[in-house]
Amino acid sequence: MSNLGSTWQDLGIPKKAYNFYLSALSINQEINDRQHEALTLLNIGHLKRIVDGNFDESEKLLKNAISILRTIGDKYFVGMCLSQFGHLALARGFSSSQYIEEMQSIIDKLKSSPDSELSKDFQKLKYAEDTFNSGGRLFRGERIENIPDGLRKWLAKNEGLEAE
User: Fold this and answer.
1) Which of 2, 5, 12, 145 could bond to 150 as cystine, CB 3.0-4.6 Å?
2) 27: domain CATH number?
3) How many domains does the chain have?
4) Residue 164: inside a domain
5) Which structural domain, as residue segments, surrounds residue 98?
6) Burial level of 2, CB count in 10 A (0-12/13-18/19+)?
7) Among 137, 112, 116, which residue's Cα sits nearest to residue 127?
8) How far apart are CA 71 and CA 148, in angstroms?
């Protein structure tokens, strides 16, 4: 169900995405699937930050997700969670360098391929940090071109995101 949520999010229908994520979260908790529970919390945290601009709720969800992931020893998805913490820091006007360093360490330990989602998220966070440091424009911690097209259109219509 989380995959369906991600699809709706990328298509620019965040309300449907949120509903699918909530359903997935409930199921994952019911069957005690801790990894997928954490990943769903991660997805909802991203949605809360980028769509709602609710940074406090995003942080709470991400803290829950990373706690679960560290408990079960899932370094790969800890790295993915660190990426979201980095974007959250940027959205709040702070550097994401500590998260970049932690992610780099995980990527090195896991010998993660440059084509992996973890490495791609790492690069997106590094580019967002570079944009932040050069005074460039970010939207809630993200480079605008890294927001999926459908979601970018929804944000432009509903949240005042201006295309570059």
Assistant:
1) 12
2) 1.25.40.10
3) 1
4) no
5) 2-158
6) buried
7) 137
8) 31
pLDDT, tens digit, for every residue of 52-87?
999 999 999 999 999 999 999 999 999 999 999 999
Stated pTM of the model: 0.94
Tell me if 108 is assigned to some domain: yes
Distance, in Å, from the CA atom of 8 to the CA atom of 15, rounded to the nearest integer, reads: 8
In a domain, 107, yes or no: yes
Tell me the per-residue pLDDT of 25-48, one tens digit each, with 9 for 90 and over: 999 999 999 999 999 999 999 999
Q: What is the pLDDT of residue 163?
A: 60
What is the 3-state secondary structure of 37-93?
HHHHHHHHHHHHHHHHCCHHHHHHHHHHHHHHHHHHCCHHHHHHHHHHHHHHHHHCC
How far is Cα 63 from Cα 69, in angstroms, rounded to an integer? Answer: 10
